[in-house]
Amino acid sequence: MKIGIIGSMHFSEKMLGVAEDLKRLGHEPILSNFVQLFPGKDDTEKEKIKLEQKFEEDAMKRDWATMEKADALLVINLERHGIANYIGGNTLFELAAGYFNGKQIFLYNPIPDISYYKTELEAVKPVILNKDLGKMD
Question: Average pLDDT by consecutive 10-residue portion of the chain (137 residues)?
């Protein structure tokens, strides 16, 4: 299965590791066009890169064009800003686009307790993996 890996670019190191794990399981991972730029950078550097990409390179549209090739989306949702299983705004956009385009949605960890959009996340009926990539069939 072709699996688009999405999430905050602050999780880029984890995304790259998960991509390797998916390959070993026989899947074809699809990553952001920009993910290779983030490993090894601190949060301030990552934020600067993200803003430049969004405004100067139309990163959101470019990444969605890449993710459209996927059969499913895997959201890497880890702890960030003191929120367990964080899903940020850009990831929420990509997840919604995937849902509206009929892609199966997987969450690496459970749905975060973010009151503003927890219900919407529940409504797309994601498969919660609890870090077990073997559940993706």
Answer: 95 96 98 87 87 82 91 97 94 96 98 93 97 93
pLDDT of residue 59: 83
What is the Cα–Cα distance from 96 to 87, expressed in whole angstroms? 12
Task: Look at the pTM and tell me if it is higher than 0.85.
Answer: yes
Reported as half-sphere exposure (CB side, CA atoms, 13 A), residue 118 has a value of 9
> What pLDDT was estimated at residue 115?
87
What residue ranges do the domains of the chain occupy? 2-135
CB 104 within 8 A of CB 71: yes
CATH of 2-135, one of 3.30.420, 3.40.50, 2.60.120, 3.30.1560: 3.40.50
DSSP for 21-73, written as a single string: HHHHTT-EEE--TTGGG-TT--HHHHHHHHHHHHHHS-HHHHHHHHHTT-SEE
Question: Bridge partners of 2?
Answer: 28
